[in-house]
Amino acid sequence: xxxxxxxxxxxxxxxxxxxxxxxxxxxxxxxxxxxxxxxxxxxxxxxxxxxxxxxxxxxxxxxxxxxxxxxxxxxxxxxxxxxxxxxxxxxxxxxxxxxxxxxxxxxxxxxxxxxxxxxxxxxxxxxxxxxxxxxxxxxxxxxxxxxxxxxxxxxxxxxxxxxxxxxxxxxxxxxxxxxxxxxxxxxxxxxxxxxxxxxxxxxxxxxxxxxxxxxxxxxxxxxxxxxxxxxxxxxxxxxxxxxxxxxxxxxxxxxxxxxxxxxxxxxxxxxxxxxxxxxxxxxxxxxxxxxxxxxxxxxxxxxxxxx
Amino acid sequence: xxxxxxxxxxxxxxxxxxxxxxxxxxxxxxxxxxxxxxxxxxxxxxxxxxxxxxxxxxxxxxxxxxxxxxxxxxxxxxxxxxxxxxxxxxxxxxxxxxx
Lengths: 307, 99
Ligand SMILES: Nc1ncnc2c1ncn2[C@@H]1O[C@H](COP(=O)(O)OP(=O)(O)O)[C@@H](O)[C@H]1O
Ligand SMILES: [Mg+2]
Description:
The complex is a heterodimer.
Chain A: E1 2-6, H1 13-25, E2 30-34, H2 41-45, E3 54-55, E4 66-70, H3 73-91, H4 99-108, H5 110-126, E5 132-136, H6 142-148, H7 150-175, H8 181-199, E6 205-211, H9 215-230, E7 237-243, H10 253-268, E8 273-278, H11 287-298
Parallel strand pairs in A: 1-5, 1-6, 2-4, 2-5, 6-7, 7-8
Antiparallel strand pairs in A: 3-4
Chain B: H1 2-17, H2 28-49, H3 60-71, H4 74-83, H5 87-98
Bound molecules: adenosine-5'-diphosphate (ADP) and magnesium ion.
Adenosine-5'-diphosphate is lined by residues 7, 9-15, 40, 241-242, 277, 279-280, 283-285 of chain A.
């Protein structure tokens, strides 16, 4: 099963997905992945985490296995650049075209970051590992954009595949060989895009949005739901986070606003709401906080996944 | 296109008639034709791969993914490029000037 948490910055994606992963880990090994370049999982678990999978040390009474991973897209782009350069250097030819500069230019485009993130995301999403996967800040922004442009990329891949096949057909007549690393790479790209698009539409994949009862969060959620609907990616539901209790002074204008947006959310997305999470008095950080905080999540429909 | 199809069918007939025939000296012409056609197709393929230099809106994803593979083919088409000034060659030179 795969869970992807999206939403505006600051609404509580990291808090919710980390807590949820912790909850899932009790019943089945779980991997929590963050794709936010400004990682905060280390803060939330109070343990150093890096770009390779790390097992979280859990309290003795807490049975379960939770592993965490913070994707480092920039690092993998640098590595790509380095190996590509190395290949070029190994050829040891004097080519008038400045490939170094070209590689630099290509990998500095916003698209390149998006692409590298997509690749890491896709590899995890499509791997046939049998633990549960929870994505913090999964494909709302960049990645989703890339998936939405999958159609366009798909068309280009198709064109280039047929151009390559044109070469190969004649080459085969020429020297009988049909092996080609390029056509393999192209077909792999194609199947990756199709695989991700398909996986996101599977019933065992849950795309969940976190929002707070605030104007900007509500608007961003509405926009995201619309785009996702257009590209026919089903959103499983919403978690409304950080709801102030009724007993704080009713005079605070903040509470008044919150009530307004909370009502709007309940009206508009009645069927999508998986649960509402109260404002936690302390910062939900560190395992000693997350474990009690998880009770809030257990009471929502997300709790059904650990029954 | 037409030219390639013609070579294709002529070649196939030749191969059907006498096996191993087409590498013989009599088939040198065919062989040369085929080589030329491959180059033409390769040029088209490369122009697409480096399409961004030619102003085609090809996604960087594809170029970045193919680049390491294309690099291993470089020695081959470098020779061709310097001999013949193609559109792609001009685009490469343009890029060099620009940056
Ligand atoms: N239910 C809650 N009650 C109180 N504070 C919360 C709650 N959920 C999240 N927070 C706090 O809000 C801040 C932003 O949460 P975070 O999970 O980092 O958001 P995001 O990942 O969406 O940017 C953090 O300081 C977090 O501790
Ligand atoms: Mg976060």
